[in-house]
Structures are given as structure tokens and as C-alpha cells.
Amino acid sequence: MSSPRRPGRRTNLALLVLLAASFATGWLAFGVGASPALAVVTTLHGVIGLGLVVLVPWKSVVARRGLRRNRPHLGALTLASLIVASLVAGVAHATLGPLDVAGISALDVHVGAAFLVVPAVALHVAQRPQRLRRTDLSRRTALQSLGLAGGATIAYAAVETVSSVARLPGSGRRGTGSYEAGSGQPSRMPVTQWFTDDVPDLDPASYALTVHLPERHPRRVTYSELVAAADTDVRAVLDCTGGWWAEQEWRGVRLDRLLGEVEGESIVVRSVTGYTRRLPAADAPRLVLATYVAGAPLSAGHGAPVRLVAPGRRGFWWVKWVAQVSLDDEPWWLQPPFPLQ
Ligand code: HEM
Ligand code: HEM
Predict the structure, then answer these.
(1) Residues 196 and 254 in one domain
(2) Which of 120, 149, 177 is the last residue of a domain?
(3) 321: domain CATH number?
(4) What is residue 139's predicted lDDT score, i.e. its pLDDT?
(5) DSSP 3-state helix, strand, coil percentages of the chain (rounded to 5)?
(6) How much is the pLDDT for 266?
């Protein structure tokens, strides 16, 4: 080889690629929907994440060498702690079940620590940059990558096998990685909302929904009118990015019937809290504004007086405490992929 070899450079670059791919597939798993078929995304995410563990023997050589040098190590050690915390919590969630300590779940720790990894790794790489070389695109690198992919797949298969042989709760989780909680019994269903939201206390007697259609006066629909118009029962799975799912029978009014002629690109559903999601107008026949679940009015925590039921979508689309529904010509994807408020 022409260039002098610097042991560890490729290990470090592989770590960078794996971290970026873990982060991307983690969010992808939340973004793509609620179908169990999406297990392919969560599996890929798990395999990529465990690839980091496969590289530990190589990285520990690099790290020991780095630690012997006389320079500050706090940033690198913080990064290492965050990675360990995220990995341990991710595997714990995927195997031991929906662990919860003082209201904080293993999945919260997993995603929270992964979030903090981003600035930590950016700093680490900025202080210890690694150059790309032309030989990085060689046959040798391709074979090494294949070896890494094989090792990561074996690591994932080992975790899944232990989980299934030991009948750990993880063997019963859904393809999205979520655990069943309260199907058919809404009172047992967890109350979770986007971390920026709080449960409001609304009085159905004074509640009214506002419907905005282009070139028409806004229309007010009261709670009793909505209950009277409820003509649709839909059995649908609410699969929350908080890591739980429940199947319920929801009753309400279909959005295409509420809006009448649906002419526009997207439907904007807004909560009294300001929380907003934009959905494709073509979905209107599948979207329901529900007032009842399992034969009883919704509870405040589950979205009373009215919530959106969006079958096939993850929970953050199921806007609770709906105050306003409007139709406009903006494309539905013109919004942050995940709520920012
Ligand atoms: C899983 C993610 C990573 C962890 C946990 C990690 C951890 C560490 C630790 C603990 C050290 C030794 C302490 C020190 O140098 O202050 C180190 C050194 C180093 N890291 Fe990382 N690192 C990671 C990813 C990366 C990445 C993505 C790069 C660059 C692309 C990188 C490049 C380096 C370099 C160049 C050294 C110094 C080696 C030397 O001085 O001989 N690391 N890393
Ligand atoms: C540093 C970045 C990340 C790494 C290294 C990582 C790694 C992992 C690992 C190893 C697992 C366990 C897989 C298994 O044993 O089945 C896991 C599970 C999971 N992670 Fe991540 N992850 C990262 C970031 C994220 C992010 C940003 C999200 C979401 C926004 C996320 C969502 C999930 C979910 C939902 C599971 C459960 C999947 C299942 O049960 O199969 N992860 N992750």
C-alpha cells in the first residue's frame, strides 16, 4: 500500500457511518408508519446499532492509544457514556419490555441519549478529524464492510434468539418495537402526548370545532352535533412512538363527510393546545374525528372531546383535543416530519 497505514482510521470512519445510519433509521422507524410490516426498518436499525458493539475490540485499541496522550479526554469519555447509555436502553427496551422509572421509559433514555450523541460526536470528530483516502473505496474496504455487516447481523440475531428462548417480553413486541397496553380497555391505555403538550381540561358543553374550507365562512360544529353525526366505527391500532400500542373500536365522523366536497391538497388538524399536523386530503375517507372509544366518551387524557383517528399512522398524527380542521392547497409534506411544538 502506498500511503502509510494509520491503524484505527477506518474503524473511526466506520463508527461515523454507523452512527449516522443509526440516527437516520431510528427517525425513519418513527416516520414511516404503524404497520407491523415495518419491522424491516426497526430490524435494520437494530442491526446497524449493534454494529457499533461489533467494533468495540478495534475501537478500544484506538481509544487506549488516545487516552495515553496528554490532552483533555472529557469530550471523548462523555461521547462514550452517551453511546453506552443509548445502546443499553435500546436493547433493554427491545428485550425486557416497556421499562419505566419515575415516568421515564427505556425508550425515552434511548432516544434522548442518541440526541445528545449528535453534538458530542460532532465535537469529537472536529477535534480528531480523519481524512478519507482513495483506497477507502477499495475491494478490501468492501470486504471489511461485509464482515462488519455479517457480525452486526449475528449480534442482532443473538439478542433476538436469547429474547425468544428466554421468553422475554421483547419476543411479543410489535414490528415497530411497541408493546401492547390496554387494547379494548382504554382506561388501561397510557396517556402520552408529544413532549411539548399538556392535557387540557375541556367542557364538552361549551366546546365547538371550527371547520375552515376555502372561500367559505368558517363553520362551527358543537360537541352534540359531532356525536349525532358519528356514523363510523373503526377498529384501529394506535401505535405510539412512546413504545406502546393498543387496538380500539373508535366511533366518530369521517372527515370526508364532515368537510363535504374535499377539494384541496391537505387537511390541517389543530388541537386547542396549538399542536398541528397536516395530512393528505386524499386520506379524508380514512380519517375519523372520534368522540367515542370502546363505547364510551373519550377521557381527557385520550383527547376529549374530539380526537383524530389516523389508521396506519404513528400516534403523533392522531391529534387530540381537536379545535380546528381546515383544507388548503399546500402540499401535506410541507411541514417538519416531526412536531416541533
Ligand atoms: C462510537 C463512537 C465513538 C466513541 C465512543 C469514541 C471514543 C473515543 C475515546 C474514548 C477516545 C480516546 C480518548 C481521547 O482521544 O481523548 C477516542 C479517540 C479517538 N477517536 Fe473516537 N470515538 C468514537 C467515534 C469516533 C469517530 C466517528 C471518529 C472520527 C471519524 C473518531 C476519531 C478518534 C481519534 C482520531 C482518536 C484519537 C486516537 C489517537 O490519538 O491515537 N472517534 N475516541
Ligand atoms: C446513536 C444512535 C442510535 C443507536 C446506536 C441506536 C441503536 C439501537 C439498538 C441497538 C436498538 C436495539 C435493537 C434490538 O436489540 O432489537 C435500538 C432500538 C430502538 N431504537 Fe435506536 N438507536 C439510535 C437512535 C435512535 C433514534 C434517534 C430513535 C428514534 C427517533 C431510535 C428508535 C429506536 C426504537 C423505536 C427501537 C426499538 C426497536 C425494536 O424494538 O426493535 N433509535 N436502537
Answers:
(1) yes
(2) 177
(3) 3.90.420.10
(4) 92
(5) 50, 20, 35
(6) 96
Centroid of ligand 2 to alpha carbon of 151 (angstroms): 18
pLDDT at 149: 98
Of 34-43, 45-54, 71-80, 82-91, the range with the lowest mean pLDDT is 34-43
One domain for residues 220 and 96: no
User: Whose C-alpha lies nearest to ligand 1, atom 17?
Assistant: 63
State pTM to two decimals: 0.92
Ligand 1 contacts CB of residue 181 (under 6 A):
no
What does R_g of the chain's alpha carbons equal in angstroms?
24
Which distant-in-sequence residues (6+ apart) come within 8 Å of 19 by Cβ?
52, 117, 121
With a cut of 60, say whether residue 16 has pLDDT above it.
yes
Residue 6, ligand 1, Cβ within 6 A:
no
**Ligand number nearest to the C-alpha of 49:** 2
Of 295, 284, 146, give the one whose Cα is nearest residue 235.
295
Total structural domains within the chain: 2
Measured in degrees and rounded to the nearest 5, phi and psi for residue 34 equal -115, 10
| In a domain? residue 186 | yes
Domain assignment present for residue 340? The answer is no
Q: What ligand has the least distance to the C-alpha of 32?
A: 2
Q: Find the 161 Cα to ligand 1 centroid distance in Å.
A: 32
Q: How confident is the model at residue 5, as a pLDDT?
A: 54
The domain boundary residue, chosen from 130, 145, 177: 177
Q: For residue range 148-189, what is the model confidence (pLDDT) as tens digits? A: 999 999 999 999 999 999 999 999 999 999 999 999 999 999
Q: What is the pLDDT of residue 3?
A: 40
Let me know whether 225 and 245 are in one domain. yes
167 lines ligand 1 (CB under 6 A): no
- The percentage of the chain sitting over the pLDDT mark of 90, rounded to a whole number, equals 83
Classify 35 as helix, strand or coil. Answer: coil
Q: Whose CA is nearest to atom 5 of ligand 2?
A: 49
Q: Which domain holds residue 216?
A: 181-328
Select from 105, 127, 109, 124 the least CA-distant residue to 181.
105
Q: Is residue 2 part of a domain?
A: no
Is 338 domain-assigned? Answer: no
Minimum-distance ligand 1 atom for the alpha carbon of 55 = 1
Q: Which residues on neighbouring strands pair with residue 209, listed in sequence order? A: 221
